[in-house]
Amino acid sequence: MGQVSDEDLFAPIFTSARRRALWLGINLITAFLASAVIGIFDKVLIEVAALSGIIIPMVLDKNGIDPALAGSVILTTVTDVVGFFVFLGSATIIFMS
Questions:
Q1: How many whole angstroms separate alpha carbon 82 and alpha carbon 48?
Q2: Transmembrane ranges (predicted)?
Q3: pLDDT value for 91
């Protein structure tokens, strides 16, 4: 399982950091890449978030649910679902045409 030994688990912090530096660097680069791609579609996401951010609390309040407690969970779900829909929908359009 990744060839992790007890020696690796209990290694000093600097030794562990040195061993993981390459992968942490790659992770950082991929995070920047993902951020750049998201930035291309920021206008769509700003619309997807604004509309959801208005409608969800209103619907929760009408149903007697405190929007401050439930709103963030539902808003995150809606944002994720719409994000995947846009991502996969765009990929389908690109690759199926």
A1: 7
A2: 21-38, 72-96
A3: 86
Q: What angle do CA 39, 88, 32 make, to 5 degrees?
A: 30
**69: CB partners within 8 A, 6+ apart:** none
Q: For tokens 């660097």, name the residue.
A: 25
Which has the closest alpha carbon to 75: 50, 56, 60, 91?
56
User: Tens of pLDDT along 37-83?
Assistant: 778 877 777 776 778 788 888 998 999 988 888 878 887 888 788 88
Return the structure tokens found at 92: 């389908």
This prediction's pTM: 0.44
Token representation of residue 59: 């619907």
